[in-house]
Write a structure and sequence with these properties.
The protein has 13 helices and 16 strands. With about 525 residues, the protein is of the alpha+beta class. The protein folds into two domains: about 290 residues, no CATH class; about 130 residues, no CATH class. An eight-stranded mixed β-sheet has the order 6-3-2-1-4-5-7-8, sandwiched between helices. Strands 11, 12, 13, 14, 15 and 16 form a six-stranded antiparallel β-sheet that branches. It has a two-stranded antiparallel ribbon with strand order 9-10. β11 and β12 form a beta hairpin.
Amino acid sequence: MPRMTQCKVCMLLKDAISKEVNMESRQSLLIYRNEHLNRQQKEREAYYQRRTDAEKNPDEILSIIIDGMDQKKGDLPHFKGYADPKGIGQYKLKTHFTGALCHANKKMYTLVDLCQYCHDTNLTLTCLLHTLHKESKDGKLPAKLYVQLDNCVRENKNKFFIGFMAYLVKRKYLQEIMMSFLMVGHTHEDIDQRFSKYSQKLKENDAKTMPELAKVLENSTDPQPEITILQTVWNIRDWLLPHLEEIHNQSFPHVYRIYLASNGEVKVQYKNWSTDFNWQPEDGLLEIFKKENGLQSIPEGYPDIAPMTFDDAEIRKVRQSIAKSKDVLSFAQFEWWRTFLDSPKTETVTMSNQTTNWYLDELYSYRPAPPAVTTTSPEETDTIQRLLTREREGRQVTNSIRQQRGRRETRRLGNRPARSRPACRVPIAIGNMAIIRIDGDKVIGKVVSKLDGIISLEVYRNVGSGVYRPVIQANGDVTVRSGPMSCVLHSFRSLTSLNKLPRNMAQALERLQNTQD
């Protein structure tokens, strides 16, 4: 039984650490190993965050993970405990499971094939399309798709898969697609837990025919998975090929972003790691489609169906094995095998409930995200901000009760001390908000980096009624401006739930404007 791909870095480091006798060298190797493990953990956490975003916003984001199950566990005929009775034929009909797990509703879609198709990009894309078709509502999908894949160049991490994602965006079935991959050798995830449920159920039950196998799988988990016998794989690879540009080194990045730019062209950007700050290439010059008369060329119509091919030699061996296993099969089971082996293509089509229509013919443009709704009143927001500010600042510890009373009296009378006091004592930290003077302008934004005395902000602007939003460029990125730390005027934790400045910051900004005037 093939084993899951192991991480070469982990194997080499583990071997080197076990053999190293010099303590300093061993410590260096341990540092390298921790760095490697921390990097893979960050990628896993980024996947969990995308999954959580989809669970919280199912009308805006569809998150899917696609993978294949280990071979041989579902080969037919199957006997519980994976222990074949003595004297039966040892040759089995090979099966293969391709699963797609949707995170918002926990629904699992599984395509079962009999190895009559190549396990390549066409199969993976057919599984994805099958899932999108099932998850659509009135023929429409959420605006964003997050798809997690298993870092296999043959099946998904190639220009054909990326190209088809770009096609879906170009045709506006989706607004934006995020493809992400865990590190090789560290790809065991939630979908593999579902596959383990399949294995456990098969360990407890016989499945001597294909209908029996489908029934066992359907009863393996809750919510119940949807099992489909595969009869159609679309040859998307050859359909796209004449329209795709050559791209190289696409196997290195771990995140791809495909979106529609303001000029109507599909753009493809990538990050080597989810923790990288900037998308590459920053100029957006990575072309996925060839151009004709200055316009991106995409295929018309729909692809051909890939040919279904059963190996005659394999079928002959299975027939001989079933003949030897007649004593452990019921009459109905033996008749199923006789009928199937006489005409495997016809019987596969008969068993399947998969649609033979081109999936995209039944899909329309994505549905826009619903407007944001808040139930918190401005008064509640101001009260929360005031209490949090008081919680952060605390009270000064003094020796004199009179001194404290004097300060209270001063505040009551409105005659504040003359000493300068910042509007907020929140530290200038990444993720916090700040007001900074750059080239004479007062810039409000979120801190994204601090390095060598330079601070960078994602710029926010007042879009009306005191509501602040990020300033978006034509390529979809947020505008970033930088300046020296000495130019920071104020800092604060965050905007209110209504995306407005906290009251103390609004007052501070007004004072700054009055001073400038």
